[in-house]
Specification:
By secondary structure, the chain is of the alpha/beta class. It has one domain: Aldolase class I (TIM Barrel, Alpha-Beta Barrel), CATH 3.20.20. The chain has an eight-stranded parallel β-sheet. Helix 5 links the parallel strand 5 and strand 6. The longest helix has 17 residues. The protein is globular. Bound molecules: D-xylitol-5-phosphate and zinc ion. D-xylitol-5-phosphate binds next to strand 2, strand 8 and helix 8. The site of zinc ion has 6 residues, from strand 2.
Length: about 220
Amino acid sequence: MSVKAKIGPSILNADLSQLYEESEKLLKNGADYLHLDVMDGTFVPNLTFGHPVVKCLRSKIKDAFFETHMMVQRPQQWIESMADAGVDQYTFHIEPVLDDVDEICRKVREAGMKVGLAIKPGTDLEAVTKYIPIADMILIMTVEPGFGGQKFMANQMPKVEWLRKNYPSLDIEVDGGVGPETIHQCAKAGANMIVSGTAVIRSENQKETISYLRNSVQSAIDA
Ligand code: DX5
Ligand code: ZN
């Protein structure tokens, strides 16, 4: 396998009045990238922040890799503004835009960002497999998107296993309820990009938790 283990903390459950400080702390403690959860109150029953906030964060953090997880009804609407805000990877849910996935991928790439495609727990893997050749990463949600701190859904692991078996060098991300207690299931299934919110933010030793998560995944890759 040629993929690398990467840990991308989600700042959703951090103290958002201290977004910059919290982000810097995560990066200093070994985060490989930042996973920024954008919600529009329509695709999911919650609201977070959009490109103006991401742009402010980027103005202070120049060199970290920013992934925006677009839990929005119209991902096509925010491509240019997120590119302008300095986003590196635009990961969007295919569910609300099934007829337009190709075109949205093309526009994201034209705007200079990497393409991530996300599916909810209830969405079959078949819905996304045909787009793998035009995507940089597939995100398998391990909770119903909308809120941090939910319970990890182990029944999503067969999707990860299938992807890894068929696409040895694909970046596969998991998101939702992932922490030291659930990381081994993700690692064994073959995920290499790990989003972890509550478990990292609330941990007493962020550095240790992040390196534990990364080592668990990297050992499974190297095995
Ligand atoms: C859920 C978000 C996740 C989530 C992760 O809708 O996409 O990124 O906040 O947080 P934890 O790890 O607490 O589930
Ligand atoms: Zn997320």
